[in-house]
Amino acid sequence: MKIYYVTLNNTDEARQIGRALLECKLAVCVNWFPITCAYSWQGEITEEPEVVLIIKTQDGYALEIEKLIQEHITYTNFIAEITPDAVNQGFVNWLNAEVSPRSQ
User: Fold this and answer.
1) Is residue 78 classed exposed, middle or buried when 0-12, 13-18 and 19+ CB atoms within 10 A define those classes?
2) pTM for the whole thing?
3) Hey, how many other C-beta atoms are within 10 angstroms of the C-beta on 8?
């Protein structure tokens, strides 16, 4: 299983991307929530609102997920792949039923 942590500009982007991932069977579940982002840019510290999209899926879908995200946005964003150490069996069963496992 993989989890993707994705930063976006707003909830509309997260909703559109999340629904597209589910419709394409690239994810079993997505969550999004607002955050505040502080960063250093050209010698200044800036704070802006941002949205995090969390994608829960099988291993092996990174390229398709990134491509789909890039179809919905025109800016460079952050996409991180996270491998959980343990996941409850009920969730794994649901994931396997909804998103085809990829052979490595």
Assistant:
1) exposed
2) 0.93
3) 23
d(CA 75, CA 6): 13
Q: What angle do CA 99, 22, 6 make, to 5 degrees?
A: 100
Q: Are strands 2-8 and 44-57 parallel, antiparallel or unpaired?
A: antiparallel
Q: Which residues of the chain have pLDDT under 70?
A: 103-104
**Site of tokens 């419709």:** 23
Q: Supply the pLDDT for residue 103.
A: 66
DSSP result, 6-53: EEES-HHHHHHHHHHHHHTTS-SEEEEEEEEEEEEETTEEEEEEEEEE
